[in-house]
Amino acid sequence: MTGPFPMGIPWKRALAGLVLGRRARVDCFRTIADLLESEFELERALDINIRAMRGQGPSLRARLLEGWRRALVENRFPAAMAATAPPAEAMIFQAYGRIDADVLFAAAARVADLRDRQISAVQKALAMPLTLAGGLAVMLWAAGGYFVPVLESVVPPERWGPAAGLFRASAAWLHAEPLTFLAISAAIVAGLSAVMVYWTGPGRTALDRIAPFSLYRTITGSAFLFVALEFLKAGVDLNDSAFEDLKRHASPYARDRIRAIQHGMTRGAGFGRAMALAGHGFPDPALVPVAAALDGAPGWENRLSGFVERWVGRSEDLLKSRATALNGVLLIAVTVVMAAGIDAMFSVLQQAGRP
Q1: pLDDT (tens place) for every residue of the chain, 355 residues total
Q2: What is the C-alpha separation between 219 and 221, in angstroms, rounded?
Q3: Fewer CB near the last or first residue (10 Å), C or N of the chain?
Q4: Phi-psi bin for 85: left (phi > 0), alpha (psi -120 to 50), beta?
């Protein structure tokens, strides 16, 4: 793929995600699926979308879709989609050529919509404590530059108590080193994200029981199961070839969990039973027992698909409930820091009132 999203650059997927966000991808995939169902060729459907985007003015979205169309002509469409779509959606397009394109784009739209609703639910649940934490950091920075010096002029720092001294040191450091604080915060977030995406060794199953790891497992796992069911509904057997397609562009964590399910099926277990044998609670602990129970029953694919559809409808509330613990930890941390600041202020004022 050429243009603004060249193949082989690590950040190309993130850049494409900024250009064509979650909601925009849902609309784009649905529009293409509708055109394909109306018996347009895929190249023609892409061209119509490109012209529609150009009609809205200069747009990187049009250039992104031009890359898809060019990749289609050059017979590398699955690779181009994998380079510019999130892993869950990229899994779907690896079946291009074996499943009708309209089915693929309709499935991609459903998966993108599922991820959008799930991620939005988590973001809404964590918005308030994260906003409070950001506001508290700004207040602490301002205190270090303006409030603390005034208190120091009233009461010498050596007369401050332990809590007040800690507040003074923290505020002064944050005011003097705001870029260092931001760098440390970014490093913590990046490190935690890397662990969620890459760590699959001992202890990961236990970590998956707590947020934010449980949230990542649910979002990643439900997307995998949704894609696997789309494969089954389209008549694609979940054999080694299909699993290799599912793993090819999955995250390292998802790839490891999918590999464990594949191993169980290789040993003769059915799809649901293989999830239980893996012992990871993946795709989700609420899904695995049902999938295992339905395994091998007549019409189990349709029954499991119906259960997953209902579960997806409740997934937003499920993710919100799983975010509650993390939400509570953040709120407690913010409250403790605020209380320490207030206690320090009153401690200094009491010292000022003493002879």
Answers
A1: 344 433 344 467 778 888 888 888 999 999 999 999 998 999 999 999 999 888 776 578 888 999 999 999 999 998 888 888 888 788 888 888 878 889 889 888 988 888 888 788 778 777 877 887 888 888 889 888 888 888 787 777 777 777 778 888 888 899 999 999 999 999 998 999 899 989 998 899 999 988 788 888 888 887 788 788 877 777 777 888 888 878 877 788 989 999 999 999 998 888 889 999 999 989 888 888 988 888 877 777 778 878 877 877 676 677 777 667 767 777 787 777 777 777 767 776 676 666 5
A2: 6
A3: C
A4: beta
Which pair of structure tokens corresponds to residue 324?
A: 């509650």
Q: In whole angstroms, what is the distance from residue 226 CA to residue 328 CA?
A: 30
Query: What secondary structure, in 3-state letters, does the chain show?
Result: CCCCCCCCCCCHHHHHHHHCCHHHHHHHHHHHHHHHHCCCCHHHHHHHHHHHHHCCCCCHHHHHHHHHHHHHHCCCHHHHHHHHCCHHHHHHHCCECCECHHHHHHHHHHHHHHHHHHHHHHHHHHHHHHHHHHHHHHHHHHHHHHHHHHHHHHCCHHHCCHHHHHHHHHHHHHHHCHHHHHHHHHHHHHHHHHHHHHCCCCCHHHHCCCCCHHHHHHHHHHHHHHHHHHHHHCCCCCCHHHHHHHHHCCCHHHHHHHHHHHHHHHCCCCHHHHHHHHCCCCCCCCCHHHHHHHCCCCCHHHHHHHHHHHHHHHHHHHHHHHHHHHHHHHHHHHHHHHHHHHHHHHHHHHHHHCC
For the whole model, what pTM was predicted? 0.77
What's the alpha-carbon Rg for the chain, to the nearest Å?
A: 26
